[in-house]
Amino acid sequence: MQEGEILVPINISRELPATEVLKQEKIFVMDENRAKNQDIRPLNILILNLMPDKETTELQLLRLLGNTPLQVNITFLRMTTHESKNVSRSHLNTFYTTFEDVKNHRYDGMIITGAPIEHLPFEDVDYWEELTEIMAWTKQNVTSVLNICWGAQASLYYHYGIGKYELPEKTFGIYKHRVADPKIKLVRGFDEVFHAPHSRYTTVSMEEIANDPRLFLLSSSEEVGAFIIMSNDAKHIMITGHLEYDATTLAEEYARDLHKGLDTSMPENYFPNDDVNERPPNTWRSHTHLLFSNWLNYYVYQQTPYQWD
């Protein structure tokens, strides 16, 4: 092993564009041949990537899933009832599979990402029917599901009947959050107050979550409301923000919104001195790695059966 290289056995295709970037960042990527030589049962993680810039999201999530000593096999899932416009058909056909191809398998963990479709009622989303079929399937076929931003709102709506509502203006920036109970394993190691990025036009009711006995509000913000929600059986974990974001992601979204002519305010608590020419620091990275590591360890690895029936 080279000096500075981190041995983290994440098993992905050699041809995936993110693979080379991860190697340049000194993150070890395990190929299929080496994975087969390890006498352990790897975790099988399914990622439903609904974000338009799929390659960026792939890299962000793979960095986090690779930061544990657990061997992880990754499968990327796409929707068949929606045509992605920001990624090539070749990339999807090469690196993604469909629900039809995975529905007879079981997975130790699953991630459902966000999607920039908050303005639509859930039932008006072109792939909503397909998504609800997948979410129903997870009840018996996935040990734990981590849902991000719009994915979290969709999960709350489908599984618990908690809807979303529009905000007067976009929640956009870096905000302080508090942990409700540091004894819960998902936030083990978290500071009592930590930062996290948000980028959304809708939110969910903290009161509805607090009044649902099936749910626990694990972290929230005085400024932007509910953040980490977990079901009592840990089957579903909902993150209303974007801990997976890179330091510059909000800046890129801000530039994109301005280019589209949208009336978007500058991200709050983000640019040093509110100067868009200064590079924002990443003040949430350590808690992001903790959350993903805790999820993989406590809610996937330690809960999933060694062999599915």
Verbal overview:
The protein is of the alpha/beta class. The chain has one domain: 3-Layer(aba) Sandwich (Rossmann fold). Helices cover 30% and strands 27% of the residues. The protein contains ten helices and twelve strands. The longest helix has 17 residues, at 285-301. The termini are far apart. It catalyses: L-homoserine + acetyl-CoA = O-acetyl-L-homoserine + CoA. Belongs to the MetA family.
Compute the separation of the termini in Å: 38 Å
Order of helices and strands: EHEHEHEHEHEHEHEEHEEEHH
What is the helix tally?
10
Q: Could you describe the largest sheet, including whether it forms a barrel?
A: 12 strands, mixed
Query: Could you name the CATH class?
Result: Alpha Beta
Q: Classify the helix fraction into a percent range.
A: 25-40%
Residue stretches low in confidence (pLDDT < 50, at least 5 long) are 1-8, 34-39
CATH architecture: 3-Layer(aba) Sandwich
Strand elements, count? 12
Keywords:
single chain, HST_MetA, alpha/beta, disordered N terminus, 12 strands, 309 residues, twelve-stranded mixed β-sheet, methionine biosynthesis, MetA_family, Rossmann fold, amino-acid biosynthesis
Quick structural overview:
This protein has a single domain (6-301), classed as Class I glutamine amidotransferase (GATase) domain (Rossmann fold), CATH 3.40.50.880. 30% of the residues lie in helices and 27% in strands.
